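Ticket #4471: structure output looks truncated?

Reporter: J.K.
Steps to reproduce: submitted the chain below (102 residues) through the standard prediction queue, then opened the result file.
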Amino acid sequence: MRAVRGASAKPARRPDPVIWRWLPAPALALLVCAGLWWASRPAPVAIESRPIALPAAGAALDQGYELTQQAPAAALAPLSKEMENLQRDLRNAVEFLMASIP
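Returned output as attached by the reporter:
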């Protein structure tokens, strides 16, 4: 019977470590110090806008637009000349054949 009574007895609870009792106070103090530091910082300086940059960007965009308008004509100009030569040769061949046939 003594063994049964002894087995049902709950073991003694270990005391909590001391760190859990004093940890919230330094954490709160650290949080208050961080808030005060953040509130006392100087405001960020505004960045000046450069009015010269906008016309330069506009000029670059205009040049890009002009390039896209002129590039196809410059790239196809040699091919157009070849096409005209081919049509001329074909026309001359047809004229020769028409003249050869009685």
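Triage note (M.O.): checked the attachment and the full token line is present. Residues 69-102 form one domain.
Status: closed, working as intended.
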